[in-house]
Design brief:
Belongs to the peptidase U62 family. With 464 residues, the chain is an alpha+beta fold. Helix content is 22%, strand content 36%. The protein is built from 9 helices and 19 strands. Strands 3-2-1-4-5-6 form a 6-stranded antiparallel beta sheet. It has a 5-stranded mixed β-barrel with strand order 7-14-15-16-19. The protein has a 5-stranded mixed beta sheet with strand order 10-9-8-13-18, with helices on one face.
């Protein structure tokens, strides 16, 4: 594992040390201007994207940005401002404006910086998030073009694929820094790479579309472009000539690429904002069983080269692997400092900070653990049901947990995946869905939220 010294030169990028110093400087200026406390975020990134269609280059785009956000406190009053103009004159004006705004803002008993004793001190963990630290050169536009072409070509080679929406490849580098007036200053850099393909199968009104995509922090962890394209083509062909479902109650099996959304709804329900506003369907669930006793939901922000790994949270607190749900029991809310103060609890190291505004919450690399059932067994136990590969719409009530989504996928017949089906709706309540969940043993880490194949018994299907 290599230690990061600094990002390659770019008109928008600074080294990690320079980014940290930029955030510290603006905090010091805010204190001199009359702020009782302050924190600042500096973020810069440079990205290169290439897209192709039907074997020809369509677009090459490069973007660079650098932004700074400042939050100041005057007593119990606070204000946040941000800018992409990093000139000395603009930053001096920004500081003056922020302090003036804070003096006029309403008081907030809960707002403020994180507890001093909880700040990360010492060297942050090495998470291998930036592969240029090990000498990997950024890819050229030609190299990305070749990846995109290879992905699309492999997809078009699949029998039954008739057209393409294109292939793409991308590479990006970023640096993120946070400084506070009570003793924290940290920064880290990341790289990310992606390859995708999206194609159509069939003809006329019976055409079906599907895609495949893979993203990774390190280039050597990225799936082969041809494999990504082939997967996109095979997925599109499998969806041809979909049938319709008869309405009724039946088991639903969620493919891993859509099953992660179920855990996403759980995260939204246990965030500090939802709990303090009392707008969560899990409002009274802390310390109670919400999943079967063999299942746990774990958060690992220290996973090497993880898509959501980070050495500290958006308030400068140390982050560490934790069980959000342990053996089915909900163990914690996800709290930034303001929500924690309002609830009389401690912040959990899940604060998320953007350039503007106050912190929210997020997780690191989240995954559902404990699945023991082989996929073939899980399907055999279903007998007759539906295997869902696509979810449509946003029909989830975060207050009641009522769940209703459009879907497409495949019929399960005799415990095996059979013909494609489309234009149906699946419905239930998330509390019941979580309790009636069975997990296969096919967990693979590919996304920010990773789950194995999931079966939820007793859902309602409304056929088209």
């Amino acid at each position: 594992m290599c230690q990061r010294a600094g990002l390659p030169k770019s008109t928008a990028m600074l080294t990690v040390d320079q980014a940290r110093e930029r955030a510290q400087t603006i905090v010091e200026q805010a204190r001199r201007a009359g702020a009782d406390a302050a924190d600042a975020v500096f973020a810069a990134d440079a990205a290169l994207e290439v897209s192709v269609r039907l074997g020809k280059l369509e677009d090459v785009g490069r973007s660079e940005s650098a932004d700074l956000g400042l939050r100041v406190f005057v007593g119990k009053r606070s204000a946040s401002v941000s800018t992409s103009d990093l000139s000395d004159t603009a930053l001096a004006t920004l500081v003056e404006r922020a302090v003036a705004m804070a003096r006029e803002a309403p008081e907030d008993d809960w707002a403020g910086l994180a507890p001093t004793e909880r700040l990360l001190h010492g060297a942050p963990p090495l998470l291998d998030l930036d592969d240029t630290a090990c000498g990997t050169a950024p890819p050229t536009p030609e190299a990305l073009r070749d990846l995109a072409l290879a992905a699309e070509a492999a997809a078009l080679d699949v029998p039954g694929v008739t057209n393409s929406e294109g292939g793409g490849a991308s590479a990006a580098q970023s640096v993120w820094a946070l400084a506070t007036s009570h003793g924290f200053a940290g920064a880290y850099s990341t790289t990310s790479y992606g390859v995708s393909a999206s194609v159509l199968a069939g003809e006329g009104g019976g055409m079906q579309r599907d895609y495949a995509h893979h993203a990774a922090r390190r280039r050597d962890k990225l799936d082969a472009a041809a494999a990504i394209g082939r997967q996109a083509g095979e997925r599109a062909v499998r969806r041809l000539s979909p049938g319709r479902l008869t309405s009724g109650s039946m088991p639903i099996v969620f493919d891993p690429r859509v099953g992660g959304s179920l855990i996403g709804h759980l995260v939204g329900a246990i965030g500090g904002g939802a709990i303090t506003r009392r707008t969560s369907f899990l409002l009274d669930a802390l310390g109670s069983q919400i999943l079967p006793s063999n299942l746990s939901v774990r958060d690992d922000p220290h996973r090497p080269h993880g898509l959501r790994s980070r050495p500290f949270d958006g308030e400068g607190l140390a982050v560490s692997p934790a069980a959000i749900v342990e053996n089915g029991m909900l163990e914690t809310w996800l709290l930034d400092s303001a929500a924690a103060r309002q609830l009389g609890l401690e912040p959990t190291g899940h604060a998320a900070r953007g350039i503007g505004g106050a912190p929210g919450v997020t997780t690191g690399n989240l995954y559902l653990d404990g699945g023991k059932v082989p996929l073939a067994t899980l399907l055999a136990e279903v007998g007759e049901g539906v295997y869902v590969t696509e979810l449509i719409g946003q029909g989830v009530n975060s207050v009641t947990g009522d769940y209703s989504r459009g879907a497409a996928g495949f019929r399960i017949v005799g415990g095996e995946i059979a013909e494609p089906v489309a234009e149906f709706t699946i419905a239930g309540n998330l509390k019941d869905m979580y309790r009636n969940m069975t997990a296969a043993n096919d967990l693979v880490f590919r996304y920010g939220v990773n789950v194995p194949t999931l079966r939820v018994d007793g859902m309602t299907v409304a056929g088209g």
